[in-house]
Structures are given as C-alpha cells and as structure tokens.
Amino acid sequence: MQKNGPIALAFNFLVVAFVLAPLVIVCLVAFTPDSTLTVPTTSFSLRWFRAVFDHPNFMQAFQNSLWLAFLSATIAVCLAVPAAIAITRYRFPGRDVLNGLFKSFIFALIIGVVSCHQGLITRGGPRGIGRSVTKAVVNSIVLVVSVDYLLTRILLK
Fold first, then answer.
1. Which of 115, 112, 120, 113 is nearest to 134 (CA)?
2. Helix, strand, coil shares of the chain as percentages rounded to 5?
3. 45 and 74 within one domain
4. Does 78 share its domain with 109?
5. Which residues, 6+ apart, have CB-to-CB distance to 115 below 8 Å?
6. Disulfide-capable partner of 118 in 9, 64, 136, 143 (CB 3.0 to 4.6 Å)?
7. Does one domain contain both 49 and 86?
8. Which of the pair, 26 or 75, is modelled with greater confidence?
9. How far is CA 138 from CA 108, 144, 150, in A?
10. How many angstroms separate the CA atoms of 81 and 86, rounded?
C-alpha cells in the first residue's frame, strides 16, 4: 500500500483546518464576556449560554431538535438494521430494488460532491465554467462507474 506524500498530507491538513476553523471561532466567542471576539480575552464567561437558556424560543427549538433527533435516529435504526440483515443474508423478491435504491443514493452523493467541488474552484469566467462543467461530468461518470463496480462486488457476494 502506497503512503500519502507530503503534499497530500498538507492538503488534507488544510481541508480539515478550513472545516474546523469556524467551529473553533464560535467556541472562542461563546466563552467571551464581550459581544465580539477579543484576543487575548481577559476573562471567560458563560454569558452567551445563559442568554440562550433564558430565551424561550431557543429553548423550544432546542427541545424540538432533541426530540426530532431522537425520533429520527430511532426510526432509522429500527428500519435499517432489519433491512441490512435481510439484504445481506437472504435472497428475496425486491432485493435488487433495495440495492438499486442504496446505490442511487451513493451515486447522487458522489455527483453532488464532485459538482460542488468543481463549482467552488471555478476560475476564468465563462470558459472556466465550461471547463468545470466538463470536468464535473467526466469525474462524476468515472467515479460512479468505479463505485458501481465496487458496490456490485460487495453487494453480490
């Protein structure tokens, strides 16, 4: 197995840092007593947490979110576990349909991520857009065909 080179590792580090940077900033601001982020901060405060818990609309939204998360996770587990066991252990009418639905979800995810990536890195006006669309289509086709092969190998064992 080939290891990632230093450029790939640096790129991965930058992506992770880019994704986590807003979370770090929000956490820093959450514990400051001021209304804006001041670095270095003179003291830490739970002012913003108290403000959220004092506001009834936020508390109602928080309770709704917890209830919805619990309910959707419970339903997902109750449906997914028996379906996964049935699909992997038994041959039954409709098995191919379920495999197709699973694969279509994965393909949609691939196409969406590739297209968003190409759209975000587009440069050069209309020509750049044309090149990015072509790259997105070609990359999506290659990835979908490759992932389809892998999923077929895994699902048809």
1. 115
2. 80, 0, 20
3. no
4. no
5. 136, 140
6. 136
7. no
8. 75
9. 15, 10, 19
10. 9
Shared domain check, 118 and 80: no
With left for phi above 0 and alpha for psi between -120 and 50, is residue 94 left, alpha or beta?
left
Domain count, the chain: 3
Other CB atoms within 10 Å distance of the CB of residue 14: 10
Q: Is the pLDDT of residue 57 over 90?
A: no
Domain housing 103 = 92-157
Compute CA distances 124 → 46, 85, 133, 134, whole Å: 47, 50, 13, 14
> Per residue in 89-113, pLDDT tens?
888 888 888 888 888 889 999 999 9
Q: What is the DSSP letter of 42?
A: S
Same domain, 67 and 15: no
In the chain the first and final C-alpha atoms are separated, in Å, by 24
**Within 10 Å of residue 95's Cβ, how many Cβ atoms?**
14
- The verdict on 68 and 49 lying in the same domain is no
- Please state, in angstroms and rounded to a whole number, the distance separating the CA atoms of residues 8 and 121: 18
Please give the Cα distance from 7 to 13 (Å, whole number).
10
